Structure prediction request, 427 residues.
Amino acid sequence: MNMNLYGHDGQWLMVDCGVSFNEPLKPDDLHTAEVVCADPRFISEQKERLAGIVITHAHEDHVGALPALWRRFKCPVYTTAFTAEVLRRKLVQVGLADEVPVIVVKDNETKKIGVFNVTWLSLTHSIPEPFAMTIETPVGKIFHTGDWKIDKKPIIGEGFSSARFSVLAKENILAMMCDSTNALRDGHSVSESDCYEALLAIIAPEKNRVVVGCFSSNVARLVALGRVAQETGRYLALVGRSLINMVGAAKATGHWPSDLPLIDAAHMGYLPREEVLAVVTGSQGEPRATLNRLAAGNCFDLTLNSDDLVIFSAMMIPGNEDAIMRLVEQFKGQKIRTLQQQDTELPIHVSGHPCVDELKQLYTWVQPQIAVPVHGEPEHLIANGKVAKSSHVPQQLVGRNGDIYELAPSVKIRRKQVSVGRISLSR
Prediction:
């Protein structure tokens, strides 16, 4: 879950406002809450100083808490068209559709938000319209990466452009806040196009139903599976509200190819087994999601038989291992085949985050004075700091939740200055 605050001259700018799922509210708590977000008390108690909220992209861990928390902030929200469409659909569900001022911005556009000048820079990730940004104040310019990877062959959008980031080296970037998710992984992340080729290679020879579990927000993966369906003589159906909603947002903003048809999930039962390709929710073993209902035999739209294939085209999020493996065993007990990433050398899932070589490249292009690793567990932040140091970034500030990073006029971390924690949000 992400909630970043940048402060200058008595004002604050929030970047992202996300949720996490099935997490404890305290580190050693054995009980979990279904939907969790960062405790916003620090900024909600001074909301008159909050100039605006910027959302980098539409993943739940960046935008999911905003509909529930906006009444505590009551300020404008800035984001790009696809994320705005996803956000508006969420706001409708909580009765805020006409209350929240959502300002849509474009690539390379600059907006003055209070004392901050924010410029959006497109990059590549696993969802449409992921954006980094520069945040400029009179005392320095910050570069906030958001979530990213270097993908030269993305399924959606243009390939990663190094030129637009190497230009930042001439802009004297004071500090770079950088995604640390894969800082412990050497090498380079794998392209979404390679994942498409892997899924095609696996599904093409199949003679039975194929079900793919993946993250609903990974529109590129859904488009790839649509192409696989076309090339293998199958019909693509989506089962799960979040999947249907995300594709609806993609269609509304021009990110879903017009030549990729979808069928109504209710029609799958009338098709020969070899013509069914279903994409479903529940890749993390969520108890109420479609994969669990399929395993229990109570999915209204689809029933699986022995020798059908279930592909897990998603990472196994730490903490979900037991739930996922219970799901796999349920399928195996019915002689339904399963395929997880560890079962094959083919990249049936690829990460949307940068590995070590990509981190080095971006630090070298941008040449910030200070590196501030974000988005990861402590070991990821430490590893990212080491990568920055090896990439000749003069200073690295590695902190924790609740620390205040002072970037100008002096440079230091003030430890545990803000009381932070987690709160539960009801769905």
User: Anything to note?
Assistant: The mean pLDDT is 95.
